[in-house]
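Section 3.1: Structural characterization of target chains.
Under the original work plan, the team committed to producing a structural model for every single-chain target entering the pipeline before any wet-lab resources were allocated. The record below documents one such target. The sequence was received from the expression subgroup and is listed exactly as submitted; it comprises 245 residues.
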Amino acid sequence: MTTLIKLEIVRALRNKKFMFFSVIYPPALYLIIAGGADSTPIPGMKLNMGLYFMVSMAAFGAMTAVLLGNSERIAKEREKGWVRQLRLTALPGRGYVAAKMAAAATVSLPSIVLVMLAAALVKGVRLEAWQWLAIAAGTWLGSFVFAALGVAIGYLATGDAVRPIAMLIYFGLAFLGGLWMPLTILPQWVQDIAEWLPTHAYTALGTAVEAGGAPHVKDIALLAGYLVLFAGGAAWLYRKDTRKA
């Protein structure tokens, strides 16, 4: 399992096209969205747009790497027979899922850091040292939830269908979770749905720290629950695919 994790990380880092969209795209998008934002507080929140979108775009960038990248690669690997070769080894389902999650999370870290650098250098965001570290750590650790979801989608969909399915889930979770705009300015029914979505809990980790507090226990518990659900489902689909073969 350790060997596979190393191989997956190296392969992900060598994919220049994937690295560009996963690492450069999120900070560029942050500067476009938050570029003209001022320091006026968001209605119903203590944060301004520059602070809010720093966390949401860091989360969005991490999701790009771990969800879209993971699902498409796995679906293509299944079609090419690579996963069939892995099934001939003693690698357990949890080992395969762990390797894919580790590789995806490795790529998501530079994206998170670059968004935060753009916020500090271009938008003038100023936080305490512990807040920068806590936001980076929380956003990176939270990305494992969506890495597991990406593995599950890669086993649910075929190579031709995986992209539209992953994109639908990706953008749906991003919008309903408040990554594109603060939930306080969206309809109440969207806010009610968002309360139980992993994307809302994911960004809430960083926004709580930005406001000077600690992440809420509910958000941490919700992410932990989704991680168990997605990782368990991905491992089950891997074993199911093995029995089918």
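Residues 49-80 form the longest helix (32 residues).
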